[in-house]
C-alpha cells in the first residue's frame, strides 16, 4: 500500500496534522458549551423573521454587493485572462487573489470609510485575480480547430469572438454562475467589518444573545443560495446587474484627502516617514517580524494543516451521504441538505458562531473550515461516484465503500483537497480577526492601533504565504499526476 505515492503523501500530511495538534490551542473554554449550543439550535428552529427592521434591506444589499463585485471582477478578470500568458500579469493576479476580501475591506475602510465602494472593491479585486486564472485555463483548453476553419484574413478579434468563445462559452458561464454564489457569501461576511450586509445584523444578534433573530438570518441566507437557480436566470441577469448599483446604499461621503494621506503617509514605515534612516527601519522591521509576523505565520500554518486534514477526513465520510451506492432517496436527500448547508455557510460565519458557543481557541476555526470545505469536496466526490457503475456482485456496506469506491475516486479527492489548500490558508489567516492568533489577528490589531504601516507589511506577508502554498500545492498535484480543476 505504501508503494503508492498518493498514499505516502496522504500519511505525510496526516502526520503533520497530528504533530500540529500537539502544539495547537485546541480547547472549549466556555462554562456550559452544550447549553449554549442547544440555545442556538433552538433559535434556528424558532426563527424570528420580524424582529429586525433592516433585515430585508441587509439581504437586498448583500445581493447588490455580490452582483456588482462579481460583475466587475469577471469583466476585468476576463481582460486579464487575455494577457495571462505574460509573467507580470500572472504575478499581479496571484498577488491580488492571495489577499482575502476582508483584508481588502479593512484596507479600503481606512480611506473610503463606510462607502459602498469599499465593499464593491473588496470583492471585485480578489475575484478579478481568480477569474483571470480560471478564464485563462478555460480558454487555453478550448478546441483550436474552429479558428483554423475560418477564412484566411479573418481578424484576430473576430476569430476570437466567433471561434474560441462559443467553444468554451458553457464552461465560462457555469464558472461565473458558481463564482456568483461565492460572491454572495463574501458579501455577507463584509457585514462583520461594519458594512450594511447580512453579517452586520448576524453579529449584532449573536452579541445580544438573540438566537432566534440570528437563526432567521441564517435561514434567509440559505434560502437565498439554494434558490439561485430559480431567480438567477439568463434573461433577467442584465436587469439585476443594471439595478444592483442602485441598492448599495449611499454611505458616508469619501474624503479624498484621507486617500492621499493613506498612500503618502499612513502606510509608509514609521522610521522612513520620520526620516530616521535605514538602520532604524531595519530595527523596526525586525520587531514586526519577531513579535507579530513569525508567531502569526506559525499559527496560520499549524491551523491550516490541521484544517486541511480534517477537511479530507470529513469529505471521505460525507460523500456517501449523496451517493446512489448507499441508502435510498430519503437518505440522499437528507445528505444533500446537510452538504448544501455546510458548503453554503461561509467559514467566517461558522467560526464566529462556534467561537461564541465554545470560546476562543483554534477548535472553532478547525471545525468551521472542515465543515465548509468538507461539504464542498464531499458534494463533488459524491456526484462523481454516481457516475460509477458497479458490477452486480459488488460487495455491500463498508466493503463497497473502502474497496470499490474510495480507490476509484481517491485521486480526484486529493486533487480537490490540494486545490483547496491555498483557499484554506486564506481563510485561516482572516479568521484571526475573530481573536485566533493567526496573521489576521495581528493585522486587525495593527489597524485598531492606527499602525497601518505594520498592517500592510503583515498583509504582504499573508499574500506571499498564500502564493507559496498555492505553488507548493500545484507542484504536489503535478508530481502525483493529479488532475486540476477550479473550485470556489
UniProtKB/TrEMBL annotation:
Superkingdom classification of source: Bacteria
Keywords: Cell membrane, Membrane, Transmembrane, Transmembrane helix, Transport
Gene3D superfamilies named in the record: MetI-like
Organism this protein belongs to: Marinobacter shengliensis
Transmembrane segments: 55-84, 214-232, 239-256, 297-322, 334-355, 361-381, 423-443, 455-476
Record carries keyword Metal-binding: no
Name under which the protein is recorded: PhnE/PtxC family ABC transporter permease
Lipid bilayer topology: Multi-pass membrane protein
Localisation per UniProt entry: Cell membrane
Keyword Transport: yes
Amino acid at each position: 500500500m505504501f508503494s503508492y505515492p498518493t498514499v505516502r503523501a496522504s500519511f505525510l500530511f496526516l502526520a503533520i496534522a497530528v504533530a500540529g495538534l500537539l502544539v495547537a490551542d485546541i480547547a472549549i473554554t466556555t462554562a456550559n458549551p452544550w447549553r449554549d449550543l442547544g440555545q442556538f439550535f433552538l433559535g434556528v428552529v424558532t426563527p424570528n423573521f420580524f424582529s429586525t427592521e433592516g433585515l430585508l434591506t441587509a439581504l437586498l444589499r448583500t445581493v447588490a454587493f455580490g452582483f456588482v463585485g462579481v460583475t466587475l471582477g469577471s469583466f476585468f478578470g476576463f481582460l486579464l485572462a487575455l494577457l495571462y500568458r505574460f509573467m507580470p500579469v500572472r504575478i499581479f493576479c496571484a498577488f491580488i487573489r492571495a489577499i482575502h476580501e476582508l483584508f481588502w475591506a479593512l484596507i479600503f475602510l481606512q480611506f473610503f470609510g463606510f462607502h459602498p465602494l469599499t465593499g464593491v472593491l473588496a470583492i471585485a479585486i480578489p475575484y478579478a485575480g481568480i477569474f483571470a486564472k480560471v478564464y485563462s485555463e478555460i480558454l487555453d483548453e478550448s478546441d483550436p480547430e474552429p479558428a483554423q476553419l475560418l477564412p484566411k484574413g479573418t481578424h484576430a478579434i473576430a476569430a476570437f469572438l466567433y471561434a474560441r468563445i462559443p467553444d468554451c462559452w458553457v464552461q465560462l458561464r457555469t464558472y461565473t454562475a458558481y463564482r456568483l454564489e461565492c460572491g454572495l457569501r463574501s458579501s455577507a461576511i463584509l457585514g462583520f467589518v461594519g458594512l450594511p450586509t447580512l453579517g452586520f445584523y448576524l453579529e449584532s444578534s449573536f452579541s445580544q444573545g438573540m438566537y432566534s433573530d440570528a437563526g432567521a438570518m441564517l435561514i434567509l441566507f440559505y434560502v437565498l443560495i439554494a434558490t439561485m437557480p430559480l431567480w438567477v436566470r439568463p434573461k433577467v441577469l442584465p436587469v439585476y446587474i443594471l439595478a444592483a448599483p442602485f441598492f448599495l446604499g449611499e454611505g458616508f461621503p469619501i474624503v479624498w484627502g484621507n486617500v492621499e494621506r493613506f498612500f503618502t503617509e499612513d502606510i509608509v514605515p514609521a522610521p522612513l516617514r520620520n526620516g530616521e534612516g535605514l538602520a532604524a527601519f531595519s530595527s523596526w522591521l525586525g520587531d514586526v517580524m519577531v513579535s507579530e509576523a513569525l508567531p502569526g505565520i506559525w499559527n496560520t500554518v499549524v491551523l491550516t494543516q490541521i484544517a486541511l486534514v480534517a477537511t479530507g477526513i470529513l469529505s471521505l465520510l460525507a460523500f456517501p451521504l449523496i451517493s446512489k451506492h448507499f441508502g435510498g432517496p430519503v437518505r440522499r436527500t437528507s445528505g444533500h441538505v446537510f452538504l448544501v448547508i455546510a458548503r453554503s455557510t461561509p467559514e467566517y460565519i461558522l467560526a464566529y458562531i462556534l467561537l461564541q458557543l465554545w470560546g476562543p481557541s483554534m477548535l472553532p476555526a478547525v471545525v468551521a473550515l472542515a465543515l465548509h470545505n468538507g461539504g464542498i469536496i464531499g458534494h463533488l466526490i459524491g456526484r462523481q461516484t454516481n457516475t460509477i457503475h458497479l458490477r452486480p456482485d459488488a460487495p455491500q456496506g463498508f466493503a463497497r465503500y473502502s474497496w470499490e469506491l474510495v480507490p476509484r475516486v481517491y485521486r480526484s479527492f486529493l486533487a480537490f483537497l490540494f486545490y483547496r489548500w491555498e483557499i484554506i490558508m486564506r481563510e485561516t489567516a482572516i479568521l484571526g480577526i475573530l481573536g485566533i492568533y493567526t496573521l489576521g489577528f495581528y493585522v486587525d490589531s495593527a489597524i485598531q492601533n492606527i499602525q497601518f504601516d505594520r498592517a500592510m507589511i503583515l498583509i504582504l506577508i499573508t499574500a506571499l504565504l498564500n502564493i507559496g502554498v498555492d505553488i507548493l500545492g500545484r507542484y504536489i498535484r503535478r508530481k502525483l499526476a493529479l488532475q486540476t480543476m477550479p473550485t470556489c
